[in-house]
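Exercise 7.
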Amino acid sequence: MKAAKAEYISLVEKLEQWNHAYFVLDSPLVSDLEYDRHLKRLEEIESQNPQLMVPYSPTRKIGGALLEKFEKGAHSYRLMSLSNVYSGEEFLEFVNRTRRILSQEGSLEFYAETKFDGLSVALRYEEGYLVEALTRGDGAMGENVTENILTIRSIPLRLNKPESLVLRAEVLMPRQEFARLNVEQETLGKKIFANPRNAAAGTIRQLDTRITASRKLDAYFYEIMDRERHPYLTHSDAMKRLKTLGFKIDPRGRFCRGEQEVLNFYEELRSLRPDLDYDIDGIVVKLNRFEDYDELGVTGKAPRYAIAFKYEAEQAQTSVVDIAVQVGRTGVLTPVAEFKPVFLAGSTVRFASLHNWDEIRQKDIRIGDEVLIEKAGDIIPQVVSVLSECRSFELPPFPDPSTCPLCDRKVQRREAEVAYRCENPICGSRVLGALKHFVSRDAVDIQGVGTAILEQLLRLNLVKTPMDLFGLSLEQLLGLEKTREKLAKKIIDAIQIRRIIPFNRYLYALGIPNVGVQSAAILASSFASIEQLSIATEEDLSQIDEIGPIIALSLKNFFNSELFLSMEKRRLELGIELEVLKEEMTIGSLTGLSLCFTGTLERMPRSAAQELARSNGAGIHSSVTAKTTVLVFGGAAGSKLEKAKKLGLELWTEDEFFRRIDYGNCQEAN
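Solution. The predicted structure, written as C-alpha cells, is:
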C-alpha cells in the first residue's frame, strides 16, 4: 500500500505539471501517448485503491459524475456586467467622463484585455483547492456547475500556494472544437449550436460530466473578486499574481498609459481576430489602479471603472442562388444554400448549411432572396436574416422534402427530431458516409483507406457494405487508380489486422443513429454478444443506465434492417470475430447489490464513492430503476429519494454506506 501511495502521488504531481504546461503555458512536455499512458496507470491505481484518491486528481478532468440537476448558489460578490461602446468616439466619451469624476487632467492608466465571447463563472478556492464554481446567473445567484468545471483542463484543481481566492473566469469553446461538435450534432440529427458561446453554455450545463469533458472547453481568469483580502494595488499586479499561482490569463492583456494606447490595442486585436483560436467580440478596458474603483463606484449593474469596447460583427449581403439537399451517412437530409460569391472575414463564401427545414421556415429563406450572412466564430458561414424588403416579387417557399434527392425513396421525420432522414440503407451518399465512419479512428480504425479509395470501390461495385472490405483481394485493389502493388499490399494488411474487432468499437462503427462511443461501450459491457443485443427488446434496452428509449428505438430499427442482416451474414462468411472485453468481477462486502447515489456527500465526491462501491463488488446505476437494490443519499437529495421510497428500496445514509464497507478501518490500515 505504501508503494502504491508513493506511485500514486508521484503520478498526480507529474500529470498536474504536464496539464499546466500543455493547457496553460501552451508548451507540452511529453507526447499525447506518454500522457495517456500515465493517466491510464493513475486510473488503475484509483480503481484498485479508491481510498487513495485525492480531490485534485487529474482523473476528475475525465468526468464521470451523473448529476440530477444544478443547485442554485449565492455569489460571495456580485457579478456585474459591463456597459458597451462600439466606436472610438464613444470610448473617448467614457474616458473624459472618468477623468472628470476623478478630477484628473493627465493621462489615465488602463489595463486592456481580450473580451472573450464565452460564459462567465465565479470560482472559489480555499487553502489552494477549488471548492465551488457558479455560473453568473443574475449576478447574485448562479448554478453550481463545479463537477463540470473540474473537467476543464486549463482550470487548476489545486494551486501551487495554499491561497484562498474568489475569482472570475470566462469559459469558452475553441473554434475548431465548435466546428467538430456541430458536424457531430448535424450527423445525429440534433440541433446545431448557433455560435461557440452558445455551445460553451450548453456544454457547461450538461448533467453528464463525461459529455462536458469530451468537448474540450477552455478558460481564462481575469478578476480577483475578493480584493480586500489581498494586498494588490493594481489590476496588472493581480494578473501577474494569478499567473504565478498557475492560472491561465489573457496572454495579450497589457498595461496602457492613456487612451491612444488602448485604441492601438483595439485595432491590433481587430486585425488578429480572424486567426484566433477562439471567438472574441471586443476588448475590456479597466482602470488599472484599484483605489480608483471605489471612487468611481457603480451605476445600476455595471461598474464605472470598466467598459466593454466591442467590435461590430462583420456581415455581407448576397443573394441565394439555389438550395441543394445533401444526404449524410445516417440518412439525415441537410439543406445547403448556394450564394452569389461574396468576400467575408478573410475568404470568399459560396455555400452555407441551413441545417434543417425548421431553420428555413423560421428565417423564411427562399431561393432568390437577398440575405445578410456572417461567419459564426469567424469560421462557419451562416444566414443571419433575410432582407424581405428586397423581394421584388413573390418567391415560393422552399418545400419540405418528401423523397430523397439521391434514391427517390420516401423520407421520414422521427419523433423528437428536427431532421428528415432517408431510411434507405443502400442510398449512395449514405453508403460512402457509412464506409468512412466504419474505417475511422474511433471505430474499426483501418488506416490508409481514405475517401478516394472508398469512392472507387463503390463506383466499381466492389463493396456494398463495410463488411465487404474484408473480402477484397490484392488483384481488386490493383485495379484502382494510382494504386500500385506496395500500396495495395499495405491496404490489405491494414484491413486484415482488424479481423478481430472489439465489440464496443464494432457497435460504434455500425453507425447506428444516436449511438456514440460512450453508449457503444455501455452496450458492449451489458451484452455478451451481438446476437444477444440484437434480440433484446426495447424495454430491456431502455432499462440500461444511460441508454433510454430514444437509443433503444434506434437500436431496434437498425437490428431489424436489411443492412444489418446482410452485414452479419457477410461477417460470419468472412470469419470476422467480435472481441468481448469482460471486466473481472470484484468480490467484496457489496457483491450482489446494485447501488444508486444521490445528493451531496460530505466525505468525498460522489464519483469517488461510486468507485469505492465498485471496488467492493457493487453494481452502479446512475438512476433509480427496478434493478436498483440500494439508494445511498446525502444532503439535498431530491427526486431519486422519493422514487426509491415508492419502490420500497433499501435506503442508506452516507454513514451507513461507509460502515458497510468498513471504510474507517480501511483508512486506519493504510
